[in-house]
Amino acid sequence: MSTQSLEKALPTECIHEIISHLVHDSKALNNCIRTNRLFARLSATLLYKNPWKYFLIEEEESELVKREINPKGALLIRTYLSCLENDFSLEFPSLGENFILIQSRASLDYISFTRHISVPTMYRFLEAMITSTSTNADKPRIIQEAFLALSKAFNDRCISIDSLETCLQTTSDIFSPIIQKFPNIAHLDLLQYENTDDDLRFITKNCKRLRVFKFSVRNCNPALLSNLVETQKDYLDELCIRITASPKQLLAGLSPSVISKITDLRINGLHIDHALDGLIFKRLKSLDLSDCYSVEDKTFNLVEFGNMLTEINLSETKVSEEAIISLATHCKQNLKKLIMLPCGAADSVEQGIKALATHCPNIIEFRLDVIRVEIKAIMDLIKSCKGMQVLVLGGVDINNEDFLLDELMGNIRSNIGHSITMLDLREWGVSEQAVIELVRDCRKLSKLFLRYCRNVNDNCIKSICKYLAGNLKHLDVANCPLVTPDIIAIAETELVDCRIIHASRLYCIEHI
């Protein structure tokens, strides 16, 4: 049936209902926009309500991958800029001079359809677009002016805003007007913004129905933060607090009711200094103590986590074995994600990992940096956690007992081969046969890290192509001396949509 026949046969409401089922398919919605005016009007509101969700922003070793997996991010920015009708040339002179890049005016005001604003993603796409298309030496000023022009347009033209996520480039002049104009905003993410007491007062005054609130705290008045949270009454479902200074003073100053509402707590790069002692968390789901100076033996014995804690990040934090044992006995079956990468512990944590195997069978993500004598304990953990999906075991140091590594590989295949999607085995001395058998039995792998694995060779790459083609999205075989450029060239054609990192100079071959 043609679209004209469909319009005659069905009311507009029915057509809208049909198109609404495509909300997770950006390509289909884009096709609908190009069909005719009616389809464009009905589809654009769905596609541009939250366009940022269609773009995958990957992280690699805690840093964002510089190249966009989806190059259409710049096209999204072009579309938004085309809605500005070139009326910004006086206020933003660099744009008036340089935005001959925008070929034509948009037929619809896509900005007005937007309900979710992700400033970090928008800024990143702006940088990518202007860097790739402009030869002007004054690129930073062009980027900033385009960023300010779009921010102003969102504030002026959006009918309603449901969520706002800020970034380091955001100032109070950008987000304050949006909050003031849209007091019913439900999702406010200020984690990347350096907040002040004045910001707390402003948000308290203007936001009354926050469901998700993420906030970075540095030397703020805890009474003001408590007041802000309590004014949201029963609306608040998710409360994330990132503390960047004096955690003990801040947490001690928060009211017990506010502590009980925290769902995500982040204390980074600081001394814990008994900051958690005596606190009662009823809804805490995620605890991030990464890059802290140390976690003492009794840290997890002196705090009540409730029954909802599922994720713990101890990355780059020195953690004692006693602390891990305490953590395992407190979290038990609730714990699903544990990161100790690199944990900085001076001694083995073998007994801690055994405690995790005993008490925490539902772990689906486990990351440990240097394996010393814990390899048997890790086998116990893998046997216990049958649904594990992410396993990072880099930096092996077990006196070159490679046969133990092959045994562990067999353990991975037999116990979690059906579920594992990401596996990091960098610096392992595993045999060629162990790698071939691994990829044969772990068909769901989408990310595989074999960097510095001295025995990985061309036969291993051939098996990876044979068994993982179509599913693998990231393959790291950098500094594998037995892997040749010729086999990488073959893998480049067979592993479609896979990012391949190879060679001692970390030359990146991407086939997208």
UniProtKB/TrEMBL annotation:
GO terms for cellular component: cytoplasm. It comes from the Eukaryota. InterPro entries: F-box_LRR-repeat, Leu-rich_rpt_Cys-con_subtyp, LRR_dom_sf. SUPFAM superfamilies: RNI-like. Gene3D superfamilies: Ribonuclease Inhibitor (3.80.10.10). This is RNI-like protein. It comes from Rhizophagus irregularis (strain DAOM 197198w).
